Amino acid sequence: MRVRSLPVDERPRERLLSSGPEALSGTELLAILLRTGGGKRSVMELASHILEQYGGIAELCRVTPNELLSIPGVGKAKAAAILAAIELAKRIFGGQENKSQSSWEGRLQEWISRLGLEEREFVVAIYADDEEAFVGEDRLSYGGLDGAFIDVKYLLRRALRMGASKVILLHNHPDGALEASDEDIGLTKMLSQMMRLVGLEFLGHCIVAHGSYKWVK
Predict the structure, then answer these.
(1) Per-residue pLDDT, 30
(2) Arithmetic mean of pLDDT, 188-216
(3) Per-residue pLDDT at 90
(4) DSSP 137
(5) Strand arrangement, sheet containing 121-128
(6) Residue-wise over 129-154: b if at least 16 C-beta within 10 A, else e?
(7) The domain 104-215: what is its CATH number?
(8) Which CATH number fits domain 3-94: 1.10.150, 1.10.357, 1.25.40, 1.10.1740?
(9) What is the pTM of this model?
(10) 124: helix, coil or strand?
(11) The pLDDT value given to residue 76
């Protein structure tokens, strides 16, 4: 059904303004971003088709520009609007607009939300001082679904240069599994030993998957 054929108070844009965005379905919200239909589909049909292609809004967050552009009816303008909205959501969840958090726990929670949207594996280090106040962070590496690798010597140098006394490591599992691999456990033990040698305290290694997390023991 074309949006213009709907009563004015049932159109997505008008309903958003009168009832709030939470009242709209994912299809309606996406239709507002698309603005018009394409590929012989109305805007509502195109929005529904895109969500069906990716299994819903959560999976749409992983879409690439080329994947969007391969969908009939989605040109550069529509693809750019979708990707911009996704990136805004990632920055909001990740706290990219405000990194002056008072504690490392706050930064950890924000990274847990942000990494849950990623389809590649990322390794992040969070640095804290003696009072466990946040002093800095690094995205150390990223990889494909097969894993990511980190330079441990670089990690130690960065922590010392920032004046940190405590370090927290986290990485995501894009496949959704929270169980630690043998490599995860081995890395955790090795980091704890190496940090102790240079006077750093290793507060832990956290695995993130789809918004949940688990500490490696």
Answers:
(1) 95
(2) 93
(3) 74
(4) E
(5) 134-143, 121-128, 166-172, 201-209, 212-215
(6) eeebebbbbbebbbeeeebeebeeee
(7) 3.40.140.10
(8) 1.10.150
(9) 0.56
(10) strand
(11) 95
At residue 99, the pLDDT reads 47
**Average pLDDT of span 55-73:** 86
Query: For residue 167, how many C-alpha atoms fall within 13 Å in the half-sphere facing its CB?
Result: 28
> Between residues 56 and 166, which one has the greater pLDDT?
166
Dump strand ranges (E) for the chain. Answer: 121-128, 134-143, 166-172, 201-209, 212-215
Tokens, residue 43: 């805007």
Query: Residue 122: beta bridge partners?
Result: 142
Domain residue limits, the chain: 3-94, 104-215
* Per-residue confidence (pLDDT) for residue 89, from 0 to 100: 80
Q: Is 166 exposed, middle or buried (0-12, 13-18, 19+ CB in 10 A)?
A: buried
Burial 88-110 (b: 16+ CB within 10 A, else e): eebeebbbeeeeebeebebbbeb
Q: What tokens appear for 30 in the block?
A: 């996406």
pLDDT at residue 100 above 60?
A: no
- Of all residues in the chain, the percent with pLDDT exceeding 70 is 91
Pairing of strands 201-209, 166-172: parallel
Mention every residue, 6+ apart, whose C-beta is less than 8 A from residue 23.
15, 16
Instruction: Tell how strand 134-143 and strand 121-128 pair up.
Output: antiparallel
> How many whole angstroms separate alpha carbon 190 and alpha carbon 184?
10
Tokens of 52: 């069906």
